[in-house]
Amino acid sequence: MGETATVIDVVDGDTVDVRLDDGSEERVRILGIDTPETTDNGGAERRAEWEGIENLSYLGRWGDRASEFAKRELTDASVELEADANEPDRGSFGRLLRYVRYSRTGSEEGEGDGENDAGDAPTVYNRVAVEEGYARVYDSGFARHDDYLERERSAREGRTRVWKRSDPAQSPEIRDREVERLFVPKAASVRTASGAVPDDRVPVLASPSATQSGGEVSYEDRIPLVAVDEAAGVAMVGGPLLDERYEEAEGFSADTSRFGNYPFATNLVGSLSEASERPERVVVDGGHGQFNAEYALSCEDMAYYLRYLEGQDAALTQQNEIGEGIDGDALIVCAPATAYTDPELSAIRSFADGGGAVLLLGHGAEGMPAEAREHLNRVAEALGSDLRLSDDEIADEESNLNDDETLPRTSNFDDSFDLFGPVTPDATPASPLTVSNVDASGGDSGTGESVSFANASDAPVDLSGWTVADEAGATYEFPEGTVVPAGATVRLLTGEGDDGMTLHWGRERNVWNDDGDTVSVYDEAGDLVVERSY
Fold first, then answer.
1. Residues 126 and 228 placed together within one structural domain of the fold
2. Is 180 an active-site residue?
3. pTM, rounded to two decimals
4. Which residue range(s) make up the domain with 82?
5. Domain boundary pick from 145, 170, 195
6. Are 222 and 370 part of one and the same domain?
7. Which of 26, 29, 101, 247 is labelled catalytic?
8. Which stretches of sequence are listed as region Disordered (predicted)?
9. For the chain, what is the domain count?
10. Which of 27, 90, 95, 349 is flagged as catalytic?
11. Which of 37, 152, 244, 449 is catalytic?
Protein backbone atom coordinates (compact mmCIF):
# COMPACT_ATOMS: atom_id res chain seq x y z
CA MET A 1 0.00 0.00 0.00
CA GLY A 2 1.11 3.56 -0.62
CA GLU A 3 0.65 6.69 1.43
CA THR A 4 -2.52 8.75 1.42
CA ALA A 5 -2.66 12.43 0.55
CA THR A 6 -4.97 15.22 -0.57
CA VAL A 7 -4.52 17.01 -3.89
CA ILE A 8 -4.18 20.73 -3.18
CA ASP A 9 -3.33 21.90 -6.71
CA VAL A 10 -3.34 20.47 -10.22
CA VAL A 11 -0.34 21.92 -12.04
CA ASP A 12 -1.05 20.30 -15.41
CA GLY A 13 -2.09 16.97 -16.85
CA ASP A 14 0.82 15.03 -15.38
CA THR A 15 1.79 16.99 -12.24
CA VAL A 16 -0.06 17.67 -8.98
CA ASP A 17 0.72 19.16 -5.58
CA VAL A 18 -0.41 17.16 -2.56
CA ARG A 19 -0.58 17.45 1.22
CA LEU A 20 0.47 14.27 2.98
CA ASP A 21 -1.19 13.05 6.16
CA ASP A 22 1.69 14.42 8.25
CA GLY A 23 0.97 17.92 6.92
CA SER A 24 3.98 18.14 4.59
CA GLU A 25 3.48 19.17 0.97
CA GLU A 26 5.02 17.58 -2.10
CA ARG A 27 4.91 17.98 -5.86
CA VAL A 28 4.15 14.71 -7.62
CA ARG A 29 5.16 13.85 -11.17
CA ILE A 30 2.54 11.34 -12.25
CA LEU A 31 4.58 8.28 -13.16
CA GLY A 32 4.89 6.73 -16.59
CA ILE A 33 2.90 9.25 -18.63
CA ASP A 34 3.43 12.53 -20.43
CA THR A 35 0.71 14.99 -21.43
CA PRO A 36 1.33 17.72 -24.02
CA GLU A 37 2.74 21.01 -22.78
CA THR A 38 0.10 23.67 -22.25
CA THR A 39 -0.12 26.61 -24.65
CA ASP A 40 1.66 28.92 -22.20
CA ASN A 41 4.61 26.50 -22.08
CA GLY A 42 4.66 25.47 -25.73
CA GLY A 43 8.35 26.25 -26.13
CA ALA A 44 9.15 23.21 -24.02
CA GLU A 45 7.20 20.79 -26.22
CA ARG A 46 9.09 18.16 -28.23
CA ARG A 47 7.00 17.36 -31.28
CA ALA A 48 9.15 14.34 -32.12
CA GLU A 49 7.81 12.51 -29.05
CA TRP A 50 4.25 12.46 -30.38
CA GLU A 51 3.86 9.81 -33.06
CA GLY A 52 2.42 11.20 -36.25
CA ILE A 53 1.62 14.69 -34.90
CA GLU A 54 3.35 17.71 -36.42
CA ASN A 55 1.33 20.70 -35.20
CA LEU A 56 2.66 22.29 -32.00
CA SER A 57 -0.37 24.53 -31.55
CA TYR A 58 -2.60 21.48 -31.76
CA LEU A 59 -0.52 19.78 -29.06
CA GLY A 60 -0.74 22.92 -26.94
CA ARG A 61 -4.51 22.88 -27.09
CA TRP A 62 -4.53 19.27 -25.99
CA GLY A 63 -2.11 20.14 -23.21
CA ASP A 64 -4.70 22.63 -21.97
CA ARG A 65 -7.43 20.01 -22.25
CA ALA A 66 -5.31 17.44 -20.40
CA SER A 67 -4.90 19.96 -17.58
CA GLU A 68 -8.64 20.52 -17.50
CA PHE A 69 -9.19 16.76 -17.39
CA ALA A 70 -6.77 16.40 -14.48
CA LYS A 71 -8.53 19.19 -12.61
CA ARG A 72 -11.90 17.50 -13.08
CA GLU A 73 -10.54 14.19 -11.90
CA LEU A 74 -8.19 15.17 -9.08
CA THR A 75 -9.00 18.60 -7.62
CA ASP A 76 -9.34 18.21 -3.81
CA ALA A 77 -9.32 14.43 -4.24
CA SER A 78 -8.16 12.04 -1.55
CA VAL A 79 -5.56 9.89 -3.26
CA GLU A 80 -3.19 7.05 -2.58
CA LEU A 81 0.35 7.53 -3.85
CA GLU A 82 2.17 4.39 -4.94
CA ALA A 83 5.85 4.13 -5.87
CA ASP A 84 7.32 1.79 -8.50
CA ALA A 85 10.19 -0.51 -7.54
CA ASN A 86 11.77 0.02 -10.98
CA GLU A 87 11.85 3.81 -10.62
CA PRO A 88 13.68 6.18 -8.27
CA ASP A 89 11.72 7.81 -5.47
CA ARG A 90 12.16 11.22 -7.09
CA GLY A 91 12.71 12.49 -10.60
CA SER A 92 15.39 14.84 -11.90
CA PHE A 93 13.51 17.91 -10.62
CA GLY A 94 13.02 16.56 -7.12
CA ARG A 95 9.38 15.60 -7.63
CA LEU A 96 7.94 12.39 -6.20
CA LEU A 97 7.33 9.77 -8.91
CA ARG A 98 4.06 8.03 -8.15
CA TYR A 99 0.99 6.24 -9.38
CA VAL A 100 -2.09 8.16 -8.22
CA ARG A 101 -5.10 6.10 -7.13
CA TYR A 102 -8.39 7.88 -6.67
CA SER A 103 -12.13 7.36 -6.78
CA ARG A 104 -13.54 8.68 -10.04
CA THR A 105 -16.50 11.04 -9.88
CA GLY A 106 -19.67 9.11 -10.50
CA SER A 107 -18.05 5.72 -9.93
CA GLU A 108 -17.36 3.53 -6.96
CA GLU A 109 -13.97 2.20 -5.96
CA GLY A 110 -13.26 -1.03 -7.80
CA GLU A 111 -15.96 -0.41 -10.38
CA GLY A 112 -15.03 -1.08 -14.00
CA ASP A 113 -13.10 -3.84 -15.74
CA GLY A 114 -11.34 -5.07 -12.61
CA GLU A 115 -7.66 -5.34 -12.04
CA ASN A 116 -5.38 -5.96 -14.99
CA ASP A 117 -2.30 -8.14 -15.22
CA ALA A 118 -0.12 -5.34 -13.87
CA GLY A 119 -2.14 -5.15 -10.65
CA ASP A 120 -3.69 -1.84 -11.62
CA ALA A 121 -7.18 -0.77 -10.54
CA PRO A 122 -9.44 1.17 -12.92
CA THR A 123 -9.04 4.23 -10.69
CA VAL A 124 -5.33 4.79 -11.29
CA TYR A 125 -5.13 8.24 -12.89
CA ASN A 126 -1.94 7.38 -14.79
CA ARG A 127 -3.71 4.61 -16.64
CA VAL A 128 -6.97 6.50 -17.18
CA ALA A 129 -5.15 9.47 -18.77
CA VAL A 130 -3.50 7.13 -21.29
CA GLU A 131 -6.67 5.14 -22.03
CA GLU A 132 -8.73 8.26 -22.61
CA GLY A 133 -6.24 9.83 -25.01
CA TYR A 134 -4.90 12.67 -22.88
CA ALA A 135 -1.39 11.27 -22.44
CA ARG A 136 1.31 9.22 -24.09
CA VAL A 137 3.37 6.59 -22.31
CA TYR A 138 6.71 7.83 -21.04
CA ASP A 139 9.38 5.33 -22.08
CA SER A 140 11.20 4.84 -18.79
CA GLY A 141 11.71 1.57 -16.94
CA PHE A 142 8.49 1.58 -14.90
CA ALA A 143 6.94 -1.81 -14.28
CA ARG A 144 3.61 -1.20 -16.02
CA HIS A 145 5.15 0.26 -19.18
CA ASP A 146 4.16 -2.50 -21.59
CA ASP A 147 0.59 -2.70 -20.30
CA TYR A 148 0.17 1.06 -20.57
CA LEU A 149 1.68 1.08 -24.05
CA GLU A 150 -0.95 -1.37 -25.27
CA ARG A 151 -3.59 1.01 -23.96
CA GLU A 152 -1.92 3.93 -25.72
CA ARG A 153 -1.93 1.97 -28.97
CA SER A 154 -5.65 1.37 -28.59
CA ALA A 155 -6.19 5.10 -28.08
CA ARG A 156 -4.08 5.90 -31.14
CA GLU A 157 -5.86 3.36 -33.31
CA GLY A 158 -9.18 4.82 -32.18
CA ARG A 159 -8.01 8.39 -32.89
CA THR A 160 -8.97 9.23 -29.31
CA ARG A 161 -8.59 12.90 -28.30
CA VAL A 162 -4.96 14.01 -28.77
CA TRP A 163 -4.45 11.14 -31.23
CA LYS A 164 -7.17 12.40 -33.59
CA ARG A 165 -4.51 13.93 -35.84
CA SER A 166 -1.88 11.25 -35.35
CA ASP A 167 -0.98 9.94 -38.80
CA PRO A 168 2.56 8.51 -38.91
CA ALA A 169 2.06 7.56 -42.56
CA GLN A 170 2.00 11.29 -43.36
CA SER A 171 5.17 12.08 -41.41
CA PRO A 172 7.62 13.66 -43.85
CA GLU A 173 10.76 11.83 -44.82
CA ILE A 174 13.79 13.36 -43.08
CA ARG A 175 17.54 12.80 -43.24
CA ASP A 176 17.37 9.83 -45.58
CA ARG A 177 20.40 10.37 -47.75
CA GLU A 178 23.75 8.92 -48.73
CA VAL A 179 25.82 8.21 -45.62
CA GLU A 180 28.95 10.29 -46.06
CA ARG A 181 29.96 10.56 -42.40
CA LEU A 182 29.02 9.21 -38.99
CA PHE A 183 29.73 10.19 -35.43
CA VAL A 184 29.97 7.56 -32.70
CA PRO A 185 29.94 9.38 -29.36
CA LYS A 186 31.74 8.19 -26.22
CA ALA A 187 32.90 5.14 -28.11
CA ALA A 188 34.78 1.97 -27.33
CA SER A 189 36.26 -0.33 -29.93
CA VAL A 190 34.73 -3.66 -30.86
CA ARG A 191 36.65 -6.92 -30.54
CA THR A 192 35.91 -10.64 -30.63
CA ALA A 193 36.09 -13.13 -27.78
CA SER A 194 39.47 -14.25 -29.09
CA GLY A 195 41.05 -11.01 -30.31
CA ALA A 196 40.78 -8.44 -33.08
CA VAL A 197 37.77 -8.34 -35.39
CA PRO A 198 38.67 -9.44 -38.94
CA ASP A 199 38.55 -6.56 -41.42
CA ASP A 200 35.85 -8.23 -43.52
CA ARG A 201 33.43 -7.89 -40.59
CA VAL A 202 34.05 -4.18 -39.98
CA PRO A 203 31.94 -1.72 -42.00
CA VAL A 204 33.05 1.33 -40.00
CA LEU A 205 36.50 2.19 -38.66
CA ALA A 206 37.48 5.24 -36.68
CA SER A 207 39.33 7.93 -38.62
CA PRO A 208 43.08 7.31 -38.93
CA SER A 209 43.68 10.17 -36.47
CA ALA A 210 41.77 8.37 -33.68
CA THR A 211 43.56 6.87 -30.68
CA GLN A 212 42.75 4.04 -28.30
CA SER A 213 43.22 4.07 -24.52
CA GLY A 214 43.08 0.76 -22.68
CA GLY A 215 41.43 -2.36 -23.96
CA GLU A 216 42.09 -6.08 -24.13
CA VAL A 217 43.00 -5.88 -27.82
CA SER A 218 45.38 -3.22 -29.09
CA TYR A 219 44.48 -1.65 -32.42
CA GLU A 220 46.96 0.65 -34.10
CA ASP A 221 45.49 2.56 -37.04
CA ARG A 222 42.41 0.44 -37.82
CA ILE A 223 40.06 0.81 -34.85
CA PRO A 224 36.67 -0.86 -35.44
CA LEU A 225 33.69 1.18 -34.26
CA VAL A 226 31.11 -1.15 -35.82
CA ALA A 227 31.34 -4.88 -36.43
CA VAL A 228 28.86 -7.48 -37.65
CA ASP A 229 28.19 -11.17 -37.13
CA GLU A 230 25.88 -12.03 -39.99
CA ALA A 231 25.51 -15.68 -38.98
CA ALA A 232 24.18 -14.68 -35.56
CA GLY A 233 22.15 -11.71 -36.85
CA VAL A 234 24.06 -9.35 -34.55
CA ALA A 235 25.90 -6.04 -34.92
CA MET A 236 27.89 -4.24 -32.25
CA VAL A 237 28.42 -0.46 -32.26
CA GLY A 238 30.99 0.99 -29.88
CA GLY A 239 28.88 3.97 -28.77
CA PRO A 240 25.28 5.23 -28.39
CA LEU A 241 24.85 6.00 -32.10
CA LEU A 242 21.23 7.21 -31.78
CA ASP A 243 21.54 9.48 -28.73
CA GLU A 244 19.33 12.56 -29.10
CA ARG A 245 21.44 14.67 -26.74
CA TYR A 246 23.60 15.48 -29.78
CA GLU A 247 20.68 17.10 -31.59
CA GLU A 248 20.89 20.86 -32.07
CA ALA A 249 17.23 21.12 -31.04
CA GLU A 250 18.21 19.61 -27.68
CA GLY A 251 20.79 22.32 -27.05
CA PHE A 252 23.87 20.69 -28.59
CA SER A 253 26.02 23.41 -30.10
CA ALA A 254 26.68 21.71 -33.46
CA ASP A 255 24.28 20.70 -36.24
CA THR A 256 24.37 16.90 -36.58
CA SER A 257 21.44 16.59 -38.99
CA ARG A 258 23.78 16.02 -41.94
CA PHE A 259 25.37 12.95 -40.38
CA GLY A 260 24.10 9.59 -41.57
CA ASN A 261 23.59 7.87 -38.22
CA TYR A 262 19.89 7.21 -38.80
CA PRO A 263 19.96 5.66 -42.29
CA PHE A 264 23.12 3.73 -41.38
CA ALA A 265 21.56 2.18 -38.27
CA THR A 266 18.41 1.33 -40.21
CA ASN A 267 20.35 -0.23 -43.07
CA LEU A 268 22.44 -2.14 -40.55
CA VAL A 269 19.52 -3.88 -38.86
CA GLY A 270 17.85 -4.39 -42.24
CA SER A 271 20.94 -6.21 -43.51
CA LEU A 272 20.84 -8.60 -40.54
CA SER A 273 17.12 -9.35 -40.55
CA GLU A 274 15.86 -12.38 -42.43
CA ALA A 275 12.28 -11.18 -42.08
CA SER A 276 12.62 -8.00 -44.14
CA GLU A 277 15.23 -6.01 -46.04
CA ARG A 278 14.12 -2.96 -44.07
CA PRO A 279 12.69 -2.98 -40.56
CA GLU A 280 9.03 -2.17 -40.05
CA ARG A 281 9.07 -2.29 -36.26
CA VAL A 282 12.23 -1.61 -34.25
CA VAL A 283 12.01 -2.51 -30.56
CA VAL A 284 14.19 -0.89 -27.90
CA ASP A 285 14.76 -2.84 -24.70
CA GLY A 286 14.03 -0.49 -21.80
CA GLY A 287 13.63 -2.90 -18.93
CA HIS A 288 17.21 -3.15 -17.71
CA GLY A 289 18.01 0.25 -16.28
CA GLN A 290 18.82 1.98 -19.57
CA PHE A 291 16.60 5.00 -18.89
CA ASN A 292 18.51 7.83 -17.19
CA ALA A 293 21.80 5.92 -17.41
CA GLU A 294 24.44 8.26 -18.83
CA TYR A 295 25.92 5.42 -20.86
CA ALA A 296 22.74 3.90 -22.31
CA LEU A 297 19.54 4.84 -24.13
CA SER A 298 15.86 4.09 -23.76
CA CYS A 299 13.32 4.88 -26.46
CA GLU A 300 12.73 8.19 -24.66
CA ASP A 301 16.30 9.15 -25.65
CA MET A 302 15.73 8.43 -29.36
CA ALA A 303 12.81 10.70 -30.26
CA TYR A 304 14.48 12.02 -33.43
CA TYR A 305 15.27 8.50 -34.64
CA LEU A 306 11.61 7.67 -33.99
CA ARG A 307 10.67 10.57 -36.28
CA TYR A 308 13.14 9.39 -38.92
CA LEU A 309 11.63 5.90 -38.90
CA GLU A 310 8.12 7.33 -39.23
CA GLY A 311 9.27 8.96 -42.46
CA GLN A 312 10.35 5.49 -43.59
CA ASP A 313 6.93 4.00 -42.72
CA ALA A 314 8.48 2.17 -39.78
CA ALA A 315 7.94 2.35 -36.03
CA LEU A 316 10.21 2.62 -33.00
CA THR A 317 8.80 1.29 -29.76
CA GLN A 318 10.01 0.23 -26.33
CA GLN A 319 9.44 -3.10 -24.65
CA ASN A 320 10.42 -3.61 -21.01
CA GLU A 321 9.38 -7.23 -20.57
CA ILE A 322 11.02 -9.41 -23.19
CA GLY A 323 10.89 -12.82 -21.54
CA GLU A 324 7.68 -13.74 -23.38
CA GLY A 325 8.91 -12.70 -26.82
CA ILE A 326 9.80 -9.59 -28.82
CA ASP A 327 7.17 -7.84 -30.92
CA GLY A 328 9.23 -6.53 -33.84
CA ASP A 329 11.73 -7.43 -36.53
CA ALA A 330 14.75 -5.66 -34.98
CA LEU A 331 15.86 -5.25 -31.36
CA ILE A 332 18.15 -2.53 -30.00
CA VAL A 333 19.93 -3.35 -26.75
CA CYS A 334 21.92 -0.58 -25.08
CA ALA A 335 24.38 -1.29 -22.28
CA PRO A 336 22.13 -2.67 -19.50
CA ALA A 337 22.51 -1.66 -15.87
CA THR A 338 21.03 -4.96 -14.74
CA ALA A 339 21.68 -8.46 -16.03
CA TYR A 340 19.30 -10.39 -18.25
CA THR A 341 17.72 -13.49 -16.81
CA ASP A 342 18.15 -16.82 -18.54
CA PRO A 343 14.53 -16.74 -19.84
CA GLU A 344 15.14 -13.25 -21.26
CA LEU A 345 18.33 -14.37 -23.00
CA SER A 346 16.45 -17.36 -24.35
CA ALA A 347 13.75 -15.05 -25.73
CA ILE A 348 16.36 -12.87 -27.47
CA ARG A 349 18.01 -15.97 -28.90
CA SER A 350 14.68 -17.27 -30.20
CA PHE A 351 14.01 -13.86 -31.74
CA ALA A 352 17.36 -13.91 -33.57
CA ASP A 353 16.92 -17.54 -34.61
CA GLY A 354 13.59 -16.54 -36.13
CA GLY A 355 15.26 -13.96 -38.36
CA GLY A 356 15.20 -10.91 -36.10
CA ALA A 357 18.16 -8.50 -36.09
CA VAL A 358 19.88 -7.51 -32.84
CA LEU A 359 21.80 -4.23 -32.61
CA LEU A 360 24.01 -3.83 -29.52
CA LEU A 361 24.99 -0.24 -28.64
CA GLY A 362 27.92 0.18 -26.27
CA HIS A 363 29.83 3.00 -24.61
CA GLY A 364 33.43 3.78 -23.77
CA ALA A 365 34.90 2.65 -20.46
CA GLU A 366 34.84 6.17 -18.99
CA GLY A 367 31.47 6.77 -17.38
CA MET A 368 30.14 3.22 -17.71
CA PRO A 369 30.30 0.55 -14.99
CA ALA A 370 32.19 -2.58 -15.96
CA GLU A 371 29.07 -4.60 -15.11
CA ALA A 372 27.08 -2.89 -17.87
CA ARG A 373 29.68 -3.89 -20.45
CA GLU A 374 29.67 -7.44 -19.09
CA HIS A 375 25.88 -7.60 -19.32
CA LEU A 376 26.00 -6.41 -22.95
CA ASN A 377 28.71 -8.90 -23.86
CA ARG A 378 26.69 -11.67 -22.24
CA VAL A 379 23.83 -10.90 -24.63
CA ALA A 380 26.21 -11.31 -27.58
CA GLU A 381 27.51 -14.56 -26.11
CA ALA A 382 23.99 -15.90 -25.57
CA LEU A 383 23.27 -15.24 -29.26
CA GLY A 384 26.22 -17.37 -30.28
CA SER A 385 28.21 -14.34 -31.43
CA ASP A 386 31.88 -13.76 -30.75
CA LEU A 387 31.51 -9.96 -30.84
CA ARG A 388 32.44 -8.13 -27.66
CA LEU A 389 32.61 -4.51 -26.50
CA SER A 390 36.15 -3.55 -25.48
CA ASP A 391 37.14 -2.07 -22.14
CA ASP A 392 38.67 1.02 -23.75
CA GLU A 393 38.00 4.54 -24.99
CA ILE A 394 38.37 5.98 -28.47
CA ALA A 395 39.33 9.64 -28.85
CA ASP A 396 40.04 11.77 -31.89
CA GLU A 397 41.62 15.20 -31.54
CA GLU A 398 41.34 15.96 -35.26
CA SER A 399 38.07 14.43 -36.49
CA ASN A 400 35.33 15.05 -33.96
CA LEU A 401 32.19 16.98 -33.10
CA ASN A 402 32.35 20.40 -31.51
CA ASP A 403 36.10 20.15 -30.78
CA ASP A 404 35.40 17.31 -28.35
CA GLU A 405 37.80 14.40 -28.81
CA THR A 406 35.35 12.03 -27.08
CA LEU A 407 32.87 12.53 -29.93
CA PRO A 408 34.76 10.99 -32.85
CA ARG A 409 33.42 11.30 -36.37
CA THR A 410 34.46 9.21 -39.33
CA SER A 411 34.04 8.52 -43.02
CA ASN A 412 36.34 5.51 -42.86
CA PHE A 413 33.88 3.05 -44.38
CA ASP A 414 34.13 -0.30 -46.13
CA ASP A 415 31.88 0.30 -49.12
CA SER A 416 31.63 -3.42 -49.84
CA PHE A 417 28.92 -3.38 -47.16
CA ASP A 418 25.61 -2.18 -48.59
CA LEU A 419 24.93 0.12 -45.64
CA PHE A 420 25.74 3.62 -46.84
CA GLY A 421 22.86 4.62 -49.09
CA PRO A 422 19.44 6.04 -48.24
CA VAL A 423 17.00 3.51 -46.85
CA THR A 424 14.44 4.36 -49.55
CA PRO A 425 16.45 5.61 -52.54
CA ASP A 426 13.45 5.45 -54.89
CA ALA A 427 11.42 7.70 -52.60
CA THR A 428 13.54 10.78 -53.20
CA PRO A 429 11.09 13.60 -54.03
CA ALA A 430 11.34 15.55 -57.28
CA SER A 431 11.71 18.71 -55.21
CA PRO A 432 13.60 19.20 -51.96
CA LEU A 433 10.75 21.37 -50.62
CA THR A 434 8.62 19.88 -47.85
CA VAL A 435 5.61 21.15 -45.93
CA SER A 436 7.27 21.05 -42.52
CA ASN A 437 4.48 22.43 -40.34
CA VAL A 438 0.84 23.51 -40.52
CA ASP A 439 -0.65 25.71 -37.80
CA ALA A 440 -4.36 26.09 -38.48
CA SER A 441 -5.15 27.75 -35.13
CA GLY A 442 -5.39 31.37 -36.17
CA GLY A 443 -8.75 32.40 -34.79
CA ASP A 444 -11.39 34.13 -36.92
CA SER A 445 -9.02 36.92 -37.95
CA GLY A 446 -6.78 34.56 -39.88
CA THR A 447 -3.66 36.50 -38.94
CA GLY A 448 -2.16 33.69 -36.87
CA GLU A 449 -2.51 30.78 -39.28
CA SER A 450 0.69 29.62 -40.93
CA VAL A 451 2.28 26.99 -43.13
CA SER A 452 6.04 26.37 -43.11
CA PHE A 453 8.06 25.07 -46.05
CA ALA A 454 11.52 23.59 -45.53
CA ASN A 455 14.34 23.23 -48.03
CA ALA A 456 16.00 19.93 -47.10
CA SER A 457 18.55 20.09 -49.92
CA ASP A 458 22.09 21.40 -50.11
CA ALA A 459 21.15 24.10 -52.65
CA PRO A 460 18.79 27.10 -52.63
CA VAL A 461 15.28 26.68 -54.06
CA ASP A 462 13.71 29.51 -56.07
CA LEU A 463 9.96 29.64 -55.38
CA SER A 464 9.22 32.57 -57.69
CA GLY A 465 5.83 32.01 -59.32
CA TRP A 466 5.10 28.85 -57.34
CA THR A 467 1.66 28.63 -55.73
CA VAL A 468 0.12 27.24 -52.56
CA ALA A 469 -3.49 26.05 -52.45
CA ASP A 470 -5.89 24.48 -49.99
CA GLU A 471 -8.65 21.96 -50.70
CA ALA A 472 -11.19 24.75 -51.23
CA GLY A 473 -9.08 26.35 -53.95
CA ALA A 474 -7.72 29.40 -52.11
CA THR A 475 -4.40 30.18 -53.82
CA TYR A 476 -1.28 32.12 -52.88
CA GLU A 477 1.57 32.89 -55.31
CA PHE A 478 5.12 33.26 -54.03
CA PRO A 479 6.53 36.67 -55.00
CA GLU A 480 9.30 37.03 -57.57
CA GLY A 481 12.67 36.58 -55.92
CA THR A 482 11.51 34.26 -53.12
CA VAL A 483 14.51 32.00 -52.58
CA VAL A 484 14.81 29.55 -49.70
CA PRO A 485 18.46 28.90 -48.77
CA ALA A 486 19.72 25.35 -48.27
CA GLY A 487 18.45 23.96 -44.99
CA ALA A 488 16.24 27.00 -44.33
CA THR A 489 12.52 27.34 -43.74
CA VAL A 490 10.07 29.93 -45.06
CA ARG A 491 6.82 30.57 -43.19
CA LEU A 492 3.62 31.70 -44.88
CA LEU A 493 1.20 33.52 -42.60
CA THR A 494 -2.40 33.87 -43.71
CA GLY A 495 -2.64 37.47 -42.48
CA GLU A 496 -0.84 40.66 -43.45
CA GLY A 497 2.65 41.93 -42.63
CA ASP A 498 6.25 42.09 -43.78
CA ASP A 499 9.03 40.48 -41.76
CA GLY A 500 11.82 38.93 -43.78
CA MET A 501 11.59 35.21 -44.49
CA THR A 502 8.01 35.18 -43.19
CA LEU A 503 5.61 35.71 -46.10
CA HIS A 504 2.07 37.06 -45.75
CA TRP A 505 -0.95 36.01 -47.78
CA GLY A 506 -2.81 39.22 -46.93
CA ARG A 507 -6.17 37.63 -46.21
CA GLU A 508 -8.55 38.70 -43.48
CA ARG A 509 -10.07 35.25 -42.94
CA ASN A 510 -8.61 31.82 -42.23
CA VAL A 511 -7.67 29.50 -45.07
CA TRP A 512 -6.65 26.27 -43.39
CA ASN A 513 -9.40 24.09 -41.96
CA ASP A 514 -8.81 23.45 -38.26
CA ASP A 515 -10.25 19.94 -38.58
CA GLY A 516 -8.01 18.93 -41.47
CA ASP A 517 -7.04 20.14 -44.92
CA THR A 518 -4.50 19.57 -47.70
CA VAL A 519 -1.60 21.91 -48.48
CA SER A 520 -0.57 21.69 -52.14
CA VAL A 521 2.43 23.44 -53.72
CA TYR A 522 2.72 23.86 -57.50
CA ASP A 523 5.70 25.09 -59.48
CA GLU A 524 5.58 27.90 -62.05
CA ALA A 525 4.41 25.42 -64.71
CA GLY A 526 1.48 24.36 -62.55
CA ASP A 527 2.87 20.90 -61.79
CA LEU A 528 2.33 19.52 -58.29
CA VAL A 529 5.61 19.62 -56.33
CA VAL A 530 4.61 18.58 -52.83
CA GLU A 531 1.36 17.90 -51.01
CA ARG A 532 0.55 17.27 -47.39
CA SER A 533 -2.74 16.43 -45.69
CA TYR A 534 -3.28 16.89 -41.99
1. no
2. no
3. 0.81
4. 3-170
5. 170
6. yes
7. 29
8. 422-450
9. 3
10. 95
11. 37
